[in-house]
Amino acid sequence: MNKPLRRVAVFCGLLVLALLVRVNYVQYVEAGQLSSDPHNRRVAINQFAQPRGDIIVDGKAVTGHTTTTGSDFKYKQTFTDGPMWAPVTGYASQAYSTSMLEGVEDKFLTGDDDRLFFNRTVDLLTGKQKQGGNVVTTLNAKAQAAAYNGLGKKKGAVVALDPRTGAILAMASTPSYDPGSFAGNSLTDEKNWNALQAKNDPDDPTLNRALRQTYPPGSTFKLVTAAAALQDGKVSDVNAATNSPDPYILPGTTTPLNNEGDIPCKNATLTTALKYSCNTVFGKLGADVGLDAMNKEAALFGFNKEQFVPVRSAASNFDTKMSPDQVAQSSIGQFDTTATPLQMAMVASAIANDGKLMQPYEVDKLVAPNLSTIAQTSPKEMSQPLSEENAKKLQSMMEAVVNSPGGTGGNAKISGVTVGGKTGTAQHGLNNKGLPYAWFVSYAKTDQGSPVAVAVVVEDASANRGDISGGGFAAPIAKSVMEAVLDK
Amino acid sequence: MSASNTTTITSIGAPNRRNTELVMLLFAVAIPVFAYADAGLAKHGSVPAGLAEYGLGLGCIAGIAHLLVRKFAPYADPLMLPIATLLNGLGLVLIWRLDQEPSITTPQLGGPMAPKQLMWSALGVALFALVLVFLKDHRILQRYTYISMIVALALLISPIFFPAVYGARIWVTIPGVGSLQPGEFAKIVIAVFFAGYLMVKRDALALASRRFMGLYLPRGRDLGPILVIWALSLLILVFETDLGTSLLFFGLFVIMLYVATERTSWIVFGLLLSAGGAVMVGTTEAHVKVRVQEWLHPLALQDGGVTETAQSRYAFGSGGLFGSGLGEGYSRLIGGIAPKSDYILATVGEELGLAGVMAILLLYGLLIERGMRTALAARDPFGKLLAVGLSGGFALQVFVVAGGVTGLIPLTGMTMPFLAQGGSSVIANWALVALLLRISDTARRPAPSPAPSPDAEATQVVRSQ
């Protein structure tokens, strides 16, 4: 009986060996995949197991944390002036994940980022709790407040950039939400979250209109058309009369393109046309420049591409296949042309920065818990949509919009400072039935170049249709943002 | 016995190893006590209030068991008792640690389990003591071969009259006492029956066969019993939806048949029949089908949620090499009472890490191999068969549970011996260890010194290796 007994003993040994091999496989080979599986609650628990790092504006944290009881998650994010900063910070909710900076820099904020490895090791050795790093933003608290308060109860968005660097100074979106209202995972949090969802709130408060919503840019797009005409050599003297009929019959059709109101657009100079926002002049100009050159210029300004600031923004659109009449309509910001507020701020900032477009960014640096800088963003040139000479010509045109009598941007005038701007009133909806969008893009200039460029869009402001115009609604907001940056 | 020396000790001057056992027992008590303190510190920041009682309790259990072994089975294997004590002690710590999770210690789920488990452990050691004290010689059990068969059948069939719990009909509910898993006890009783039966029938089974294609085909009337047991285990499976128990009994029977008859053909038949049975049941029985699906796709969501299988896999995955430390894992996510019973190995994996799981598996492996060694050393065929049956069954149970929890094979509802929460399991396994110790005591006991020869001429002892 001993021979089979030995074999059985070996067989039992093999069973145990098989188990040993299996646990090694599960706990070593599969471990990485298992411990990062999105359905593994440990991932979320780990995310909130220690206080997250903070998001810092002007040296002050706009986020904080508090401990919670009664759930798996130890810490909960809190938000100072939540609705105002929400488009920047996004949310970090125990139940509903993260978004915006809280999402993009999640690993750094939780302290799991590889770049914090050294700090983690030191903490491990000294027995300290794991700590998250801080994200220092480029935002300007005063400009943000001006933008947010300027929008007030109206629906809309504001983006302000420093044209010299591309640093984002303000990024507001209304109506907004308080990310702190659903940071936990209680029933109240669930109720608050559900109430904010687009299906329950038609205003869609959690939408970041500054980055993620594209609007027809309306007349503000004429800046791009003007830049294309200058760069392409179609126009060299902005004060020379153009050959423009009024009304302009769209090429290949019998449809006339009209101007809004009784304005002197026939054969107007480019400066005059921009000042009064002549559809006829710029429509014809766009068609003359042609699809290819228009597309090239739009792309140089950043159209048709998502931007990462590092939060992703939606791609603005300028169609790449159009008939000449569609090119003409697109060139005045209608048809399929759409732009995010960030995109239009980039257009203004490239012009203000003498033709150089700087890559927009909102994270100045990432600092470790011990305050040492882990990563620093250095300003980067994205493209050069305009030569310096042409940029100066366009600046003079934009300044005329604000300063010369009859200009549409008079509301943005700031005494003692050179301000250039462009209004826009974009119609939308079937047969233009929807309330128009009011746009205003502008920049301010001092001896040290231009410290601020702003894009403002106000959706269907609750006023009579006729009253809505970029100059009336959007320009005052842009003005207060510029003043905040200039410290006026 | 044959020319090769199969006894583990010589018959002269054998050390009884009781002091070795005592030293190892000290470790087997100290390690769980430290583990208990560690879990308490991690969970509440303080040494648990009951540490002294717990240490004393476990110490008493181990001490009494040791003294009994010293008195009633002095030549028994020194390793089995410390291993059983250590596994039982660690199991208690793990259950206590899981008791600290409010979400799985609700009154509906039965409240804290550790105190009950401690009580069951004490009862288990009491049964252990009874076996050692009253069973002077394991061969006495031979007399009860057919009674064992009837008892085993009764135990196996009894759960059919009680409602299914968690999809398996393996419990017997006795009002006032709680629920018992008769399968755990049946495992021992059936091993006694097989050992007694096969000892008598082994020659008929082994020799009365025809050779066919290199295999010894047994006669139909000898093949009968194995077919009956096969059918019976399938019936258990179908009526009680208990994949584990049927696998265990069938495996047990094949192993013991093989050892008794020394015929490989039995293994071949056994594998063919069990494969056939597994395929048939796996494709028809809904409960088993689900288990197989979860085995093939462990991380798949069910009803939009994560399954227990996935949760236990996550627990293993997060453990890494050394684990999170006792009390610092999230085994509660597995939910219900499962982390204390079916999935307790996942808690080991998460909190003690790969090192801890391997240590536990090696402890099981050692216990199994000491049982096998006892079988090798036993001098009587009944003892050999009983020892191999008990330790083989134990090995199958460990493999089926651990393999199921780690995803090596489909999951079946069996308990991790000594480790998992469950009264029947703890008691039955203590009795199992007592039986093995009894056999090993008989096996290792030095042969009585020969009576002095009247014609006192010195005889040269020639020892062959």
Automatic annotation (TrEMBL), chain A:
Any matching Pfam family: PBP_dimer_2
Stretches assigned to coiled coil: none
The protein's name: Putative penicillin-binding protein
Cellular component terms (Gene Ontology): plasma membrane
Source species, domain of life: Bacteria
Gene Ontology biological process terms from the UniProt entry: cell wall organization
Residues annotated as domain Penicillin binding protein A dimerisation: 52-135
GO MF term list: penicillin binding; peptidoglycan L,D-transpeptidase activity
Domain Penicillin-binding protein transpeptidase: 156-483
UniProtKB/TrEMBL annotation, chain B:
Location within or outside the cell: Membrane
InterPro entries the record matches: FtsW/RodA
Chief localization: membrane
Single biological process term from Gene Ontology: cell division
Keywords attached to this entry: Cell cycle, Cell division, Cell shape, Membrane, Transmembrane, Transmembrane helix
CC terms in the record's Gene Ontology section: cell division site; plasma membrane
GO molecular function term, any single one: lipid-linked peptidoglycan transporter activity
Sequence intervals crossing the membrane: 21-39, 51-69, 81-98, 118-135, 147-172, 184-200, 220-237, 243-260, 267-288, 343-364, 385-412, 418-437
Region described as Disordered: 444-465
Membrane topology field: Multi-pass membrane protein
Protein name per UniProt: Putative cell division membrane protein
Organism, scientific name: Actinacidiphila reveromycinica
Lineage: Bacteria, Bacillati, Actinomycetota, Actinomycetes, Kitasatosporales
